[in-house]
Amino acid sequence: MNKLHKRFTYILVVLLCLAAQAASASPVSIKAKLDSVQMLMGTLNNLTLEVVQDKNAKGELSLFKNVNLQMGYVPVCNDSVELRTSFTRDTVDLGSGRVQINYKIPVQAFDSGFYQLPQFIYVSGRDTARSNVVSLKVMPVPGLTAESPLVGYADVMDPPGRTFFDKVPDVIYNFWWLILLAIAVIAATVLLIIRFRTQGTLLPAKPKPKPYDVAMREMNALKAQKLWEGGHDREYFTRLTDILRTYLEGRFGINAMEMTTRQIEEKISADSRIKDKKKYVSQVLAIADFVKFAGARPLAEDNVKSFDNAMNFIQETKPTPEEEAAEKAAAEEAAKAAALAARRQFFAGNSNSKNARKPGKGKKGSGKNKGKHGSSQSKGKTVSDKKQGDNIKKGGNA
Asked: Cα separation of 68 and 77, whole Å?
């Protein structure tokens, strides 16, 4: 008896240990239920998922595992029923190391019919639990057809704090810098084309050197060459008079390159600015005429005096700051006037070319008139030709 009693006690202890181990490793369970098995189309219903698991275990619903939460819902039943991702969850302690997690998931359907929601899977570690299948009946809105007007819906409202940029199309808002760059490139291209058509170049014109600066540079270069010291008197005076003539034309507008000595002296005498400097120019031109046309050999004193007189004339007629400012203003006004005239000519040429491409009714009429006049002229010519032929025949017979 004692042996039998011991064996029975041993078996009972083993069974109790197994039961305790089984209780400590209870499986995960999930149960699904709806607040109402019937709902009106478009309204909200709640789906409750009750998950029972160990207190320290971690798990999740596979339905919401790989879902874009920004979308706001998970479609089921061929997209006829939507489960909102804005669900709530609360935990209830059941004791004995077990907890119950309650998921409240909003349900909405926009198509009437009878649906069976799929089994919901809950994964906790290595354990996987599947819920029961629940049925849902979605009833249509009474009296609502495809032709029925929508009532009871508010219009779309602007978000609070809306600014002007909210009304700008997304393409402009996102790529405004590209649009501005394209406008700038187009504007620059148009300006360059107009500049090339009107001025013949894309680069700004270099300012012309002042006549005084040119004359002084040429005089210094002539002095450095020492032409008359080397016996080149003719070339020396040719260069010297050319410098003076060019200076007179650029500084005072006297076309001295095409004038004789007498004509130059008359122009200088008529100009109040330089008539008192006439003696310098007259002396240079007189010696130069003897050397170039009479073949005379000037003295060294004449060469030096001619150079000094030309230099004195240039230096004593150097423009004052007031004259330079006036000449600069006049040059700018002339440049603006030339540019304006070129633009007008450019646009007038374009308009004329466009008008020339369009056929007008007046041309057809003029053509007809021309044809009539031409035919009458040809008829008149044939009549006169016949008369002349008759006269020739009569003359021949006579």
From this structure: 18
Provide the edge-to-edge strand list for the sheet that holds 113-116: 38-40, 135-139, 113-116
pLDDT digits (tens, 9 = 90+) for 249-283: 988 889 999 999 999 999 999 999 899 999 999 99
Residue 105: CA atoms inside 13 Å, Cβ hemisphere, count? 24
Beta strands in the chain (DSSP E): 29-34, 38-40, 44-54, 59-61, 73-76, 81-84, 88-95, 98-109, 113-116, 121-124, 127-130, 135-139
Provide the CA 132 distance to its chain's centre, in angstroms: 63
Look up residue 255 and give its DSSP letter: -
| Partner residues linked to 288 by β-bridges | none
d(CA 112, CA 29): 31
Query: Token pair for residue 43?
Result: 């309204």
Residue 257: φ, ψ to 5°: -65, -25
Q: Residue 127: name the closest of 56, 50, 26 by CA.
A: 26
Q: How many beta carbons lie within 10 A of that of residue 228, not counting itself?
A: 23
DSSP 97: T
